[in-house]
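Dear Dr. K.,

Following up on our conversation at the group meeting, I've run the structure prediction for tRNA-uridine aminocarboxypropyltransferase from Buttiauxella izardii. I'm pasting the input sequence below exactly as I used it, so you can double-check it against your construct before we proceed with anything downstream. Let me know if the numbering doesn't match what you have in your notebook.
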Amino acid sequence: MTENAVLRLRAERLARATRPFLARGNRIRRCQRCLLPLKQCLCETLQPQNARSRFCLVMFDTEPMKPSNTGRLIADILPDTEAFQWSRTEPPQALIDLVSSPDYQPMVVFPASYASEGREVLTTPPKSGKPPLFIMLDGTWTEARKMFRKSPYLDSLPVISVDLSIVSAYRLRVPHADGQYCTAEVAAALLALADDEQAALGLTEHFTLFRERYLAGKPHHQSSITAVEPESV
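The predicted structure tokens came back this morning:
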């Protein structure tokens, strides 16, 4: 089983759990790598890509354990993706070291409207100089906003805000507002803007297949497709 940072984080989180984590559809027998129902497993379809850009996922509590999480898809396609459990007061030292590394240009991926006055806001990633390090706050929209507000160790970093003027294809969770997108969708857009086009295509294709198989594995999935709209990060 090919590992990635999100799977390792999931294993660590499960090891710390004091009671079983019961996600929706917990009675379904799932592949323990892709977390899809065994009949829908997509592990054999994985095609990792190379990219100049790098991603760092800061994940809220149980997010790595959710079968619907799409941050894991980024780590599937870009194996050097890092993933860390979010903490307001005690962030992992490895996260601090990564965001302060002289090898990258770190930036927090979040809507510009939430940036404080005076904070640098980018609309496209830099295409020269050091490679971009995209820091993605991975959780529900409410959780992501909390992480953005209460992560002082990220406050000095610029914010990158991407306008995805498309209808989200994500139909696995319910959104809180229009214009919200899932982690994998935003990551694919960032890759395309950074001229990592092959990686963007690979992630988009992986996300599309994941979405189709996830929904196909749900009971009465046709009604679910029409009733559920996209959720954001």
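Two things stood out to me. The CA atoms of residues 10 and 65 lie 6 Å apart. The first strand starts at residue 54 and ends at 59.

Best regards,
J.T.
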